[in-house]
Design a protein that fits this description.
By secondary structure, the protein is of the alpha+beta class. The protein is 35% helix and 15% strand. The radius of gyration is 31 Å and the shape is globular.
Length: 681
């Protein structure tokens, strides 16, 4: 939660919303809020969906979702950090009455801004007052009008240009104070939804002075009641996802001449003489439409459908360039890391690209969706990279909410009940972890220490730690040194690397790894790797074949035999998506030296066992970190493995395992496997 305060981004780059002008401006205006780095910066998103499906009756459900921006890029906008704050019930569309349903949320935001609430910081072991700020809203363009109060259709549909839409020069950038105090408050007949109700905004052209002529304001939105709202530079964010989709829908439908969807129709041709000189597109005397150069012939349509991955091949080979260039604009502006100089270049280029398109397509092609492209670079410069402000994440989450419907007689209540159960489960798994992990004493870092001490990348840091301990305790014994490694090395290494990031550059996986694993993990009863199958003891104990007994070669020429108790995947926070497969083995018999349950059978002294140590082995390394997004595994030269007995309070050993080309087995496969084995018996 404090990363935005502690992390330093390279000059001139934007990686996260805290690098943007909006965030920095807000902190300058409210230094008291910015002084507490644990205060929360929120965004809000809403959209409607039909929980019954397209084939059922009309039903419109509108969830209002909030999510914090304090988290690192790898955690920000993830499903577990999306919170359902309001659920507007159906079956009718809320339309202009959405503000009425937002009243409880706005009251809580006002309280969180003014008074805050007490929270406990587990990392600093203290109670503090936490406050919250709503940065902006995210929605598609139709919901944009519901949240902003500016009607997004008609002649003045652009919320940025407003009444300057018809001018050639760029419109002036208005501050929140100029919009609210100088414009909205001076419009006669403009009211709040909570005062007149949703139906009170019907027929705005008759009740609101100047509506549709000098402005498109239809209501005073409830967000103006937040004391800081007018000081935000960006209050409502345009959705990149829907703009990109609608733009290419219009482009594709027009070049394919899709009936009912193309922008090149009879009405547009009849209006053409009064708008521009395009005699090659005007209607002929026999009332037929000339075939334009941008329309694909039947052969071109067939090639387009069969080969969608290539550039569009138009008859003259001309306009395909503009299609490709526009696609490059969307690609570049949606980069995860943007330079300020690149944003200025994108803004300059998109205007030229749209002008070139105007030479080819008729004026009817250029509706508000094509126009909004010129404002996307401005929002990126103000807000952040678009992937922190687009609807992809929220649309997927709404599909997740849709699957929660279990009772169609009470759709909203069914979703809320399922969501509460899911939140409770997530809270327990995230903050309390697995019961076996919770049984480990607080501060125990056995697993993290083991993986650090057996990774060659951390060998230099191990030597530095030994030098540090030798200077601190000159007469330290080897046994005390090993104990210090087991208990302090992981935390020391984390602090050392975090401090060194101010002067040195580390690989992304290394920065994520030293922070430690998540407290929750996934577990499977069956695991396939390198052509071998492993079962947990509970899953395989009643089968005719045994896949749970293992032999672990030790570093002291001792072989240890045990049973696999659990197969789990430990995950790490961060962009890289590190994952480590771990098997929990219950040792039941130690051979060679004759030790059973840590007792010597021959009368000799038992070898001393430490929770973790560095004893190199010639065994092939069985630990690797996997990039979840690219499905790649780190080189084996980065790692080393050490296998030996663990003497800890849980009486089990955690041995890392590296599974390249692994296959995870679903619960259904597990049941099928169990049924087949039972049937064979």
């Amino acid at each position: 939660m404090r990363r935005h305060k502690e992390h330093v981004t390279p000059e001139g780059e934007m990686h996260h919303p805290f690098d943007a002008i909006v965030w920095k401006h807000f902190n300058e205006v409210y230094p008291g809020f910015a002084a507490e780095s644990r205060n929360i910066y929120l965004c809000l998103s809403t959209d409607g969906f039909n929980p019954i499906g397209m084939n059922g009756e009309a039903h419109s459900l509108w969830p209002v979702i909030v999510t914090p921006y304090n988290l690192p890029p790898g955690m920000c906008m993830k499903r577990e950090f999306l919170y359902l704050s309001v659920l507007v019930p159906g079956p009718t569309h809320p339309r202009k009455s959405l503000d009425i349903y937002l009243q409880p949320l706005i009251e809580e935001l006002q309280m969180l801004w003014k008074d805050g609430v007490e929270a406990y910081d587990i990392s600093m072991k203290e109670i503090f007052k936490i406050r919250a700020d709503l940065m902006w809203t995210i929605s598609d363009f139709s919901a944009y009008g519901m949240l902003s109060g500016w009607t997004t259709h008609g002649r003045l549909s652009c919320p940025y240009c407003q009444d300057e839409t018809v001018l050639d020069a760029p419109p002036p950038w208005l501050t929140g104070e100029e919009i609210f105090r100088e414009r909205i408050n001076n419009i006669e007949g403009l009211s709040k939804s909570v005062d007149c109700g949703g139906n009170g905004h019907d027929n705005p052209s008759k009740t609101i002075s100047g509506y549709g002529v000098t402005h498109n304001w239809v209501k005073k939105i409830i967000f103006w009641e937040l004391p800081y709202w007018e000081n935000h530079l960006l209050r409502h964010s345009l959705d990149f996802m829907h703009i990109e989709k609608n733009f290419f829908d219009n482009l594709t439908n027009t070049v394919l001449n899709a009936p009912g969807k193309t922008k090149d129709n009879i009405k547009s041709r009849l209006d053409l003489p009064g708008l521009c000189k395009r005699r090659d597109l005007e209607m002929k005397e026999d009332e037929t439409m000339p075939i334009p150069i941008f329309r694909l012939p039947n052969a071109g349509k067939r090639a387009f459908i069969l080969w969608l991955k290539n550039d569009l091949k138009f008859p003259d080979g001309y306009s395909s360039k503009f299609s490709r260039y526009i696609a490059l604009f969307f690609r570049d502006i949606s980069s995860k890391i943007l330079k300020e100089s690149d944003v200025g270049l994108l803004k300059a280029n998109i205007g030229m690209k749209l002008c070139n398109l105007e030479k080819i397509f008729p004026p009817s092609f250029f509706d508000v969706m094509q126009h909004l492209l010129v404002h996307l670079p401005d929002e990126v410069a103000l807000g952040s990279p678009v992937h922190f402000r687009w609807m992809y994440v929220f649309e997927r989450y709404m599909y997740h909410l849709k699957k929660m419907v279990k009772n169609k007689a009470h759709i909203a209540g069914s979703i809320v009940a399922q969501w509460i159960n899911e939140e409770i489960s997530n809270a327990f798994s995230t903050f309390f972890g697995h019961p076996e992990i919770m049984s480990i004493p607080e501060g125990n870092t056995v697993l993290q220490t083991f993986m650090m001490l057996n990774c060659e990348t951390f060998t230099p840091y191990e030597r530095m730690f030994e030098e540090y301990m030798t200077l601190s305790v000159p007469d330290i014994t080897p046994a005390a040194m090993q104990k210090a490694k087991d208990t302090k090395f992981a935390e020391w290494c984390k602090d050392y690397i975090n401090d060194a990031t101010q002067f040195y550059t580390f690989s992304m996986w290394m920065l994520d790894f030293v922070q430690g694993p998540r407290r929750s993990y996934r577990s499977w009863p069956i695991y396939h790797t390198r052509g071998y199958t492993f079962h947990t003891h509970n899953h395989g104990q009643n089968k005719k074949t045994q896949h749970y007994g293992v032999c672990v070669p030790g570093t002291n020429e001792t072989d240890y035999y045990g049973l696999i108790q659990e197969i789990m995947m430990v995950e790490y926070h961060g962009d890289v998506g590190l994952k480590v497969m771990v098997t929990v083995i219950k040792h039941v018999l130690f051979f060679i030296h004759g030790y059973v349950n840590n007792q010597s059978m021959t009368g000799g002294p038992a070898p001393k066992k430490f929770p973790r140590g560095i004893r190199d082995t010639s065994e092939i390394a069985l630990t690797a970190w996997q990039d979840d997004r690219r499905d790649q595994v780190a080189e084996i030269s980065l790692l080393r493995v050490e296998t030996h007995v663990v003497d800890d309070v849980s009486d089990y050993d955690i041995a890392p395992v590296n599974p390249p080309n692994d296959e995870y087995v679903s619960d259904g496969d597990v049941e099928a496997d169990r049924d087949s084995d039972d049937g064979s018996e």
